[in-house]
Design brief:
alpha/beta; Rossmann fold; Cobalt-precorrin-4 Transmethylase, domain 1; flat; 4 iron, 4 sulfur cluster binding; 4-hydroxy-3-methylbut-2-enyl diphosphate reductase
């Protein structure tokens, strides 16, 4: 039986970023150094496949340090944690490894420096996201005010409108954030922004690649987890760039084939915490149903690499 032709446009860059790759290596090397079990506070990255793979190797995922025995190592996720978390681990004399992405740590340092200068911080981010919780938790309560939308900017009530700085979550929509920053600067002309963009290179690059793919295709599939902020933003970016059917799928089994009937071109990308094996499974699922031609749409080449913490580079 002859299968219909279909072109798959693979966005590049896609999938793992340097921060995610480093975080996964930290868990794997911790297991090699100390043996199982090694505890991980929160999902190390937002991807079920990655978490299940590490769990099978001996990682135990918990939500709070209080759930960990004091005599086993604990790792903090790539999203970052409030200062109270390592403080609790130190109080319990636990061995801990911080897998916070260095680009998230940069935002933490920015916030602290602004606070030391007497500025109150406005954070652009998503309420309840672990990265936002971690960044806001670097300073005492009330020192970081959260805004999620342009409308929030009009409602925020800082202590002193002349003494403000802003930081952002690293995984936001670049376009949405531009609008919120513009609203902040319009309302608070004296507000100080970051020296360098807080939205990380990987988020920006993946969004730019999707913008290039979206006008070429009938549908865009983003491989990623529903709790992955950067993955959900890729869906939004694809829709805004002209592809109305843009969907998030965790794996090939979630593809809605009926919705794709009649499609002749489909774009595929993956969030920064989604492994390439899941992208390959999606491609193979299309090959089983279509006569597939694969076209790579590459808009940037990434060579960023982050070292694991020294405690894991030292011999046991």
């Amino acid at each position: 039986m002859q299968t219909p032709p279909l072109t798959l446009y693979l966005a590049a860059p896609r999938g793992f970023c340097a921060g995610v790759d480093r975080a996964i290596k930290i868990v794997e090397q911790a297991l090699e150094k100390w043996g199982a079990p090694v505890y991980v506070r929160h999902e190390i990255v937002h991807n079920r496949h990655v978490v299940d793979d590490l769990r099978a190797k001996g990682a135990v995922f918990v939500e709070e340090v209080s759930e960990c025995p004091a005599d086993r190592p604990v790792i903090f996720s790539a999203h970052g944690v409030p200062k109270s978390v390592p403080a609790e681990a130190r109080d319990r004399q636990m061995v801990y490894v911080d897998a916070t992405c260095p680009l998230v740590s940069k935002v933490h340092i920015e916030a602290e420096r602004h606070a030391e200068a007497g500025l109150q911080i406005i954070m652009i981010g998503h309420e309840g996201h672990p990265e936002t919780i971690g960044t806001m938790g670097q300073l005492p309560e009330g020192e970081v005010l959260l805004v999620q939308t342009v409308a929030d900017v009009a409602a925020v009530t800082p202590r002193d409108p002349e003494r403000l700085a802003f930081v952002t979550q690293t995984t936001l929509s670049v376009d949405d954030t531009v609008d919120i920053v513009a609203a902040l600067r319009a309302r608070f002309p004296a507000i100080i922004g970051p020296h360098k963009e807080d939205i990380c290179y990987a988020t920006t690059n993946r969004q730019e690649a999707v913008k290039s793919v979206a006008p070429k295709v009938d549908a865009v599939l983003v491989v990623g987890a529903p709790n992955s902020s950067n993955s959900r933003r890729l869906v939004d970016v694809a829709r805004r760039a002209g592809c109305s059917y843009s969907q998030l799928v965790e794996h090939a089994g979630q593809i809605d084939w009926r919705a794709l009937e009649g499609a002749r071109a489909v774009g595929i990308t993956a969030g920064a915490s989604a492994p390439e094996v899941l992208v390959n499974e999606v491609v193979e699922a299309f090959r089983a149903r279509y006569d597939v031609t694969v076209d790579l749409v590459e808009t940037a080449v990434e060579r960023v690499e982050f070292k694991v913490p020294r405690i894991l580079r030292e011999t046991a």
